[in-house]
């Protein structure tokens, strides 16, 4: 009986770290830098477009000549949060009417803050036969150790000095 109890205890102790490794956010979970690690499941992310992690995006960045980073956020989000050093900016509300301007010979990564809007945009692009690698959020990328570039707000332009109207001559 004690051998059975000892074997059961040993099996439990050996299986315990493996069980934790399967649960994102637990001790022993796969590191985000592992290229085979997929982003932690989010029940709100319901899109067909894969949700990328930092390592997956960094691997795509290794071949910039075949990649298009499409940032679909509003200009105020770009300046407040930052983004990637090179990207095409088309707001999500303008995406469908801008499809003709997107190259079909490049792999597209769609970017938003947390990847939800990017996932929806990726599904739209895929339905129009674009090659979409996935969606990523810049905030998620930064939290996983990636570096984002802060976009500087342009300085306000000084109002052009208009000369006072000349007095009318009579």
Describe this structure in words.
- This protein is of the alpha/beta class and 170 residues long.
- The chain has two domains: 1-30; 32-143, Rhodanese-like domain (Oxidized Rhodanese, domain 1, 3-Layer(aba) Sandwich).
- It contains five helices and four strands; from the N terminus they run H-H-E-H-E-E-H-E-H.
- It has helices at residues 2-21, 54-61, 75-81, 116-127, 138-143, and strands at 67-71, 88-89, 107-112, 131-137.
- A four-stranded parallel beta sheet has the order 2-1-3-4.
- Helix 3 links the parallel strand 1 and strand 2 (88-89).
- The radius of gyration is 25 Å and the shape is globular.
The CATH class of the largest domain is identified as Alpha Beta
Note the overall shape.
globular
Proportion in helices: 25-40%
Instruction: Enumerate the spans where pLDDT stays under 50 for 5 or more consecutive residues.
Output: 1-37
Number of separate structural domains: 2
How do the helices and strands follow one another from N- to C-terminus? HHEHEEHEH
Radius of gyration: 25 Å
Task: Give the helix/strand class.
Answer: alpha/beta
The chain-level mean pLDDT equals 79
- The strand count comes to 4
Q: How would you name the oligomeric state of the polypeptide chains in this document?
A: single chain
CATH homologous superfamily placement of the largest domain: Rhodanese-like domain
What can be said about the biggest beta sheet?
Answer: 4 strands, parallel
- The CATH topology of the largest domain is Oxidized Rhodanese, domain 1
């Amino acid at each position: 009986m004690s051998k059975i109890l000892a074997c059961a205890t040993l099996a439990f102790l050996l299986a315990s770290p493996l069980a934790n490794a399967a649960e994102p956010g637990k001790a022993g979970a796969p590191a985000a830098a592992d290229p085979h690690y997929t982003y932690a499941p989010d029940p709100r992310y319901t899109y067909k477009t894969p949700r990328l992690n930092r390592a997956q995006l960094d691997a795509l960045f290794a071949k910039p000549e075949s990649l298009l980073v499409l940032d679909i956020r509003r200009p105020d989000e770009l300046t407040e949060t930052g983004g990637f050093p090179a990207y095409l900016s088309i707001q999500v509300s303008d995406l469908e009417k801008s499809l003709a301007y997107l190259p079909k010979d490049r792999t597209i990564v769609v970017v938003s803050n947390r990847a939800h809007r990017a996932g929806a945009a990726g599904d739209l692009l895929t339905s129009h036969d674009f090659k979409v690698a996935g969606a990523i959020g810049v905030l998620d990328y930064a939290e996983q150790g990636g570096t984002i570039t802060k976009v500087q707000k342009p300085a306000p332009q000084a109002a052009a000095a208009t000369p006072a109207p000349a007095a009318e001559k009579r």
